[in-house]
Amino acid sequence: MTPPTTLQEALDGAAAASGLLVASDFDGVLAPFDVDPMAVRAAPGGIEALRALAGLPTTTVAVVSGRDLDTLRTLTRLGVDEPIVLIGSHGAESSDDEVRAAMEAAAVTAVDRQLLESLTTDITRLISDRHPSAALEHKAAAIVVHTRGLPPDDADAAIAEARQLALTHSGVKVLKGKSVLELTVSHADKGSAVTALGRARDVTARVYFGDDVTDEDVFTRMTRPDDVTVKVGSGSTAARYRVEDETAVVAALHRLASARRTAAATS
């Protein structure tokens, strides 16, 4: 079976699936970037479209992010009782019990925590001494260097030096994003978590929107003919389709919700 030529055709096909998973990254996909990582807010209509989809029969909806779970819930403003799954820390955390159970094999060990403590000490010293304009974010299994808003040369230097320092700590995984470098001891990834969620909900079609390097872990796993993978913005990708920005993502989600609603009404 050959995948549809256009995203519109692909979404219409996914809408008719007996079981559908719709998942999306948050920063740069549902929400525009901001110099202050905690000032990020979802684009108008995005969360509403996810809520509409989550309210439809046999439809699972998830927001997947590198953010830790508590921060992701704060920024999305999704309540704990809402039927939208949150997957944080690149798959290491989830609000869904079945995903958490599936990801236990990637859990952080005591040795990993010791490694993170040593890494955090070194990275904090580096940024404080040489790149004080960069910001640090501390997660349960990672330390993150944010350079958004810095002059390009300063940002490049901070990222390069932090990466080089991380490489002196065996066992640290380096995740480069847009104006961000995450140094993690977690063994999880977004692709594994999204796959686990789809398997747990017995879906027959999966839709995923992502913009960053870590989303490629999802794109490369979603290779079934009915899968719809969407890259947001420029850059090389394994995704089958591409849209320009967050506004286009919101429009696509609303279209998918409408088509899914129609399919449910006629089934």
From TrEMBL:
Q: What Pfam families does this protein's entry cite?
A: Trehalose_PPase
Query: What UniProt keywords are attached to this protein's entry?
Result: Hydrolase, Magnesium, Metal-binding
Q: Which class of enzymes does this protein belong to? A: hydrolase
EC number(s) per entry = 3.1.3.12
So, what pathway does this thing act in?
A: Glycan biosynthesis; trehalose biosynthesis
Query: Keyword DNA repair on this protein?
Result: no
Role of this protein: Removes the phosphate from trehalose 6-phosphate to produce free trehalose.
Q: What is the name listed in the Swiss-Prot or TrEMBL entry for this protein?
A: Trehalose 6-phosphate phosphatase
Origin species, per record, is Intrasporangium calvum (strain ATCC 23552 / DSM 43043 / JCM 3097 / NBRC 12989 / NCIMB 10167 / NRRL B-3866 / 7 KIP)
